[in-house]
Amino acid sequence: MFIQELSDCIGLSLTALSKLEYGKTKLKLSTLRLLSQALNVSIAYLGCFESLPEYSFGQIKQGSPLSTG
Fold first, then answer.
1. How far apart, in Å, are the Cα atoms of 65 and each of 46, 54, 55?
2. CATH at 41
3. What is the largest distance, in Å, between two alpha-carbon atoms of the chain?
4. How buried is 48 (Cβ within 10 angstroms: 0-12 exposed, 13-18 middle, 19+ buried)?
5. 24-59 per-position pLDDT tens digit
6. d(CA 25, CA 41)
């Protein structure tokens, strides 16, 4: 999938995707879900979560591809 196709599929601009890629903006859970659906992979496959406690959706794992820190 090309970046433009991904942009169109999830409804984010190319600029917004670029900011996510380079860690210049925080990733929302809703965007993460859209990315995982568009790429046909699980959220866990994207490597963003260290743990998924019952009371939350987990914390962004440092050093993951979508980590902002």
1. 7, 24, 24
2. 1.10.260.40
3. 35
4. buried
5. 988 888 888 899 999 998 888 887 655 554 444 444
6. 22
Predicted pLDDT at 38: 92
Mapped onto helix, strand or coil, the DSSP state of residue 20 is helix
Residue range of the domain that includes 39? 1-69
Q: Whole-angstrom Cα distance, residue 2 to residue 23?
A: 20
* Cα separation, 67 vs 47, whole angstroms: 9
d(CA 44, CA 50): 9
Q: Quick check: 23 and 42 in contact, CB under 8 A?
A: no
Query: What's the number of domains the chain is made of?
Result: 1
